[in-house]
Structure formats: C-alpha cells, structure tokens
Design a protein that fits this description.
The protein has 186 residues and is of the alpha+beta class. The chain is 64% helix and 22% strand. It has five helices and four strands; from the N terminus they run ββββααααα. Helix 3 runs antiparallel to helix 4 and helix 4 packs across helix 5. The longest helix has 66 residues.
Length: 186
C-alpha cells in the first residue's frame, strides 16, 4: 500500500470546488487486483473509491476534460469581460465628449442669452433661433438658460413662447414638469 499526500483542485459531479483541499491517495495492488481510495486528509472520509485501474483512469480523464472545459469557459468569460470593458470605455468616452459638447454649447450661448435680455433685444428670429439651439443642450445649466430666455420671450411674443413651452413639454416632459414647478414658485 502506498500513500500520496497532494494539494489539488477537487472536482466532483462535474463541479469544481475552488477551495484548495488536502487529500491522500491509497493504492493497493494485491494479487493483481487494483484498489484505490482517495481520502480527505482533514476528516479522514473516503472521497473516491476505485476497484479497477480503468475506473481510476476514466475518472482522471474526466477530471482533465472538465478542467479543460472550465479553462475554455474561463477563457470565454475573460473575452467577454475584455469586450465589455472596451464597450464601457467607449461609452464613458462618448458620454464625456457629449458632456464637453454640451458645456461648450452652454458657454457659447450663455453670453448671447444674457446680451439678448440685457439689451432688451426684440428680434423674434434671433431669439427663436437661440431657443432652438439651446433646447439641444441636455444639461441642467442648458435647461436653466432655455427657461431664462423663454421667460423673457413671453414678454415679446406670448403665442410663440407658448409654442416653445408645448414643444418643451413634448420633447422633454420631465424638464417641462420642472419648468412648471419653477413658474409656480414665482
């Protein structure tokens, strides 16, 4: 009888036990008969019991194949994670670029809106063109700028200003509700 003490990843019923387990193997070859038992070193319980060398070899081959399958699954999972990380990086970069674009637009239109209001500009085409462009700035600051110009525009052309208000309601319902709340506060 020969005893081997090994560290090994343990697989049973095609499931991988990812905790490292100590076990020992007892092989008994007597009268041309093969017996092999695998014991848990910690508990002394029999984990596997083989009566023939073929059983042992078949089981070992299954373990090797399962390990290969697990490696293939892990490789595919790692590929998925890599692609997912690349997509996340791309999306984060796209969002940053979009936010930069919105901020640039806001920085461009903010002095224009202030100048329209300060100079009491009544050029309907210029004001409406500015409103159209500001409506595309999807940030809180852009929304505030839009509302500021829209409130000014109501004093010049209430009918057209109400159309912009309805357009805002149709396009950006959540922001419209915020706009209504702000009007109620005033």
């Amino acid at each position: 009888m020969k005893k081997l003490e090994l560290n090994h990843w343990f697989i049973k019923d095609n499931k991988l036990d990812i905790s490292l387990m100590r076990f020992y193997v007892e092989i008994n070859i007597k009268d041309n008969k093969f017996k092999m038992k695998v014991y848990d070193s910690n508990q002394g319980t029999i984990l596997l019991n083989f009566n023939t060398l073929e059983e042992s070899i078949t089981y070992t081959e299954n373990i090797i194949n399962n390990c290969r399958n697990i490696e293939e699954i892990l490789d595919k999972y790692n590929e998925y994670i890599d692609v997912n990380n690349q997509i996340n990086d791309y999306l984060n970069q796209s969002v940053r670029l979009l936010m930069d674009s919105y901020n640039e637009s806001y920085n461009y239109y903010e002095p224009i809106v202030k100048m329209i209001i300060k100079t009491n500009n009544k050029d309907i085409n210029y004001i409406e063109n500015t409103l159209d462009n500001i409506m595309d700035i999807y940030t809180d600051k852009g929304f505030d700028l839009f509302i500021e110009l829209l409130n000014y525009y109501k004093n010049i052309n209430k009918e057209n200003a109400n159309e912009y208000q309805e357009l805002l309601k149709d396009m950006r319902e959540e922001e419209y509700n915020e706009y209504v709340k702000r009007l109620i506060k005033k």
